[in-house]
Amino acid sequence: MAIGWLAPCAVCGRQSRGFLYCHLLRRDRFPDYSFCSRTCLERGMASAKENNGVIDKTAREMQALKDARRPFAEALTELGLMDAFFNRTASEVDRLIEAVVTGYIESMQSQTEESRAGVPFDDPIPF
Ligand SMILES: [Zn+2]
Question: The pTM is what?
C-alpha cells in the first residue's frame, strides 16, 4: 500500500495530517498508514504492533460502533426521540450510526479531493 499520506486517517477516517507509520520501517513487508493526529498515530501503532504490522480495521470498526451507541442514545434522549428507538435491535442502531459516519467521512474525503483539485470552498466567511 503506497498511498501513504494521501489516505485518510487509518484509525478514525478523518483527513490525515502528516503522521505516518510503517511497522519496523519495512515498507517492503508492511503497509504505510497515515493519521490525523498524534493520538490516532499512537493508537494505530499499538494496534499494528499487536496485529503483526497491520491495523485490524474490522475489529476497530466493531468497537467504534459499539462505543458510538451511548452518545447516540444520549442525543436521542435529549431530542425526545428515544421512544422510536426503544424496541430496535443493536444492529439496527448500528446501521443508522454507520450510515451517518459513512456519509460524513465520504463528504470530508471528497471535500479534501476537491480542495486538492483547486476547487475553492464556497462557504461564507463567518466574520
Ligand atoms: Zn484519526
Answer: 0.53
